[in-house]
Every structure is written in C-alpha cells, then in structure tokens.
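Hi R.,

Here's the chain you asked about this morning:
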Amino acid sequence: MTTRTVIRGGLVITASDEIHADVLIEDSRIVALAAPDSQNWSADRTIDATGKYVIPGGVDAHTHMELPFGGTSASDTFETGTRAAAWGGTTTIVDFAVQSVGHTLREGLDAWHAKAEGNCAIDYAFHMIVSDVNQETLKEMDLLVEEGVTSFKQFMAYPGVFYSDDGQILRAMQRSAENGGLIMMHAENGIAIDVLVEQALARGETDPRYHGEVRKALLEAEATHRAIRLAQVAGAPLYVVHVSAMEAVAELARARDEGLNVFGETCPQYLFLSTDNLAEPDFEGAKYVCSTPLRPRDHQARLWQGLRTNDLQVVSTDHCPFCFVGQKELGRGDFSKIPNGLPGVENRMDLLHQAVVDGHISRRRWIEIACATPARMFGLYPKKGTIAPGADADVVIYDPHAEQVMSAETHHMNVDYSAYEGKRVTGRVETVLSRGEPVIDQREYTGRAGHGVYTPRSTCQYLN
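And the predicted structure, written out as tokens:
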C-alpha cells in the first residue's frame, strides 16, 4: 500500500528556486511538483500550506550528541537531540564519532552506532574524529570512505585530548587526497592557547570572559592559514569548522581566490552572540563558553559578508549542550574547566530565517547554507537538502509570519538554559515530514525514536 501526501498552496523554496507549487509525496519520496491546483492528485493526507513556505528539512552537519568532554558528557542524547532538531525544522544531522587515543577508528564508529541506533527521530550520518594518526588509522580511513563515512575531523586544539600535530595532520590529508575523504579542521593553535591559559590563571583571571581572551582571533587565523597550506601541500580539500574570527575568514577568502578547494562553516552563535555574553556577571558567561570562542561584536559583519560572498558556505550548530547547573559550574574559579559547547540544534533554522527578515541573506541563500550546501558538502544531495522528484520527503511547512520568543522554558533540547533566552524572532516551524512521515504535525510532536535511520554518504560533491 502506497501512502500519498499532497502539500498544496505553499511557496516552495530551494537553493535555486522559489515557486508556488503543489508537492506530491508517495511513501518516503517526493515524486512530483506541479502548478497550484493544476493536478487532481488523490491523497491519503493533504497539507494546506497556503501562506506558508515549503522548504527542505535542514541538514545540520555538525552536532555532538552524548559527547564525553571535560569529565562530563553533552546533555542531549541522540533521542532528545534529534527530537529537538525536528522541532527546529532539521531532518538530518551529521554527528561526530570519536576515536580515542590508543583505539581504532572502527571502535569509535561502532560505539557511536550503538548510541544512535534505534534512538533517533530523524535521519543521521557520521563524521569520524581522528585523534590518533598512525599507519593502521590511515588504512582504516580508506575503509570508512568506502562504507559512507567520508569526512574526518582533526584538531589543532586540545593538546592531550584530540590534538594532532602538523605531521599527523599532513599524513591524514595526504590519505584523504587519495581516498576522496574530506578533512574537517578545528583550527586554533592549541599549544599557544594553553600557554595563555596558564598565564591568565596565574594572574587570577578565572572568570568565563577570559576564555574568549586567551583563545585569540589571531591564533584562529594562524591555525586556519597553517591548515590551508598543509592541505595545499597534500593536494587535499579542507573544510574549516566553526569559523568565528574575521581574520580567519580572510584566510579562507584568500585561499579560495587562489582556487584552492577550501571551505568554511560558521555557526549561529558567532552570528548572533558576542564576548558581551561571555562577560555576563555571576558566572552567567559560562553558558556561552565554546571553542572557537565568541568574538567581539564587530566580527559579525564579516561573517555575514562571508556568507553572502560564499567565502563561508555552511551554517551548522556545533550543538554540544552542557547544563549550567552541575556541568558548566565545573569551571567556577577556573574558566579552563568549563565544558566547551552551546545548545543550538533547535534554533538554527529560525535564527537564519530571522537573518532573512533582517536583510542579511536572501530566502534562497537561507536554504542554501542550511540545507543544500551541507547536503552537497557531505555527500547527501539530492537525497537530502532539496525539494525535487526523487528526493527524500524531508519537508518543512514554515510559517514566515509567526512570532516566537526563544526560551529554555519552551525549547525541547535537554539543557537548562537557552543561549538566546528572550530573543524575539519571526518565523516558526509548523509541520515537519521526515521521509514522508509527520514528525511535527501542526506544532504537535508525532515522531518516535527509531524512525530516523543511518544514512551512508558519498564523497564531497564539490570535488567531483
């Protein structure tokens, strides 16, 4: 028995087009678009999208559900985190499986499959964090690419945890140049930052705001430059995650002007928050501790410009929530012990729509940076990231006129604060389909753990 769903009367927005169209879905796939009311399609379910946007489900290519960090773990599980993602109009996440030092990539990947399987409300895929580069790891990278884990994250930060030195980075990049994988880089000079942390603490500078002061923009820019040149030597593509500093954007822009396959991602927190938040009194600033850190407000304009000029291509969340009570508080008296990360998987699509309302980006660019480009970047397009015949029926009915106030009292992430508490935004998710199944139906959650399935990926589609 085929289940047919028709979405009527909406404005269909993709990265390339805006058209008033009816959308026909059969089971889990989109099968046709047609001029409004031109087709007398029969349907088991009809959704009236009059006055609403019909957009592809968001693809959040950077999340950390259940990530162990700093003696604790991210507070969202794959169950709670993917449910919150659905509430925010995101229908696919790409999370990070972690290789621990002394263990194989396979062990890390298996552990993350075990966490996610049967628990996700929406579809998911994995990147692989490579913490221990050796001959066996390099061979394993080839095998992972073959089975659909086609991107590998390395860290120039966090010595003693995830850190790789330049030689290890170069080896991994050389391998990815051969096997088609994409290296994702956390670009901060962690060795130098650790010196500045030690010096700040010795001076008695322990408050959360010093987290932003020691993780200097120049050390993000320096690491970004170094990662670009290492990738150039290796003949490999590079994707720099969570770009926050204008100086780092300049490095990416220069590399792209040289014709290098270098890509950049930023996150809503860098577009909407700043060091003003880190400086909030009574340890409240701890809520905003993440790495790369929030920057002074004057960096925001350069990030928006980068998104408009395509020097930055993707907005992901780096969703890695820790509760203020009992988790962020681990760093009272020592900012270096505050778990790094912010909640945001539920807020991204709405914040970026607010950016449309504010005139920073166009509607199509909203869909491009939040849906289509992340899907292409990580080998999920056109199954994900667009509304077209043959695509998965991951579809969001979006009310562009509804107003909402972001708050921990109303969000669905498993964390006790909102990074955007009290922020008024225009636009709200109304209904979400994941592979044709309603997960959110007229602002009611109708999804279930286990609906979301693991989705293998092809290699980066900007390199083919």
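The chain is about 30% helix and 25% strand.

Let me know if you need anything else.
M.
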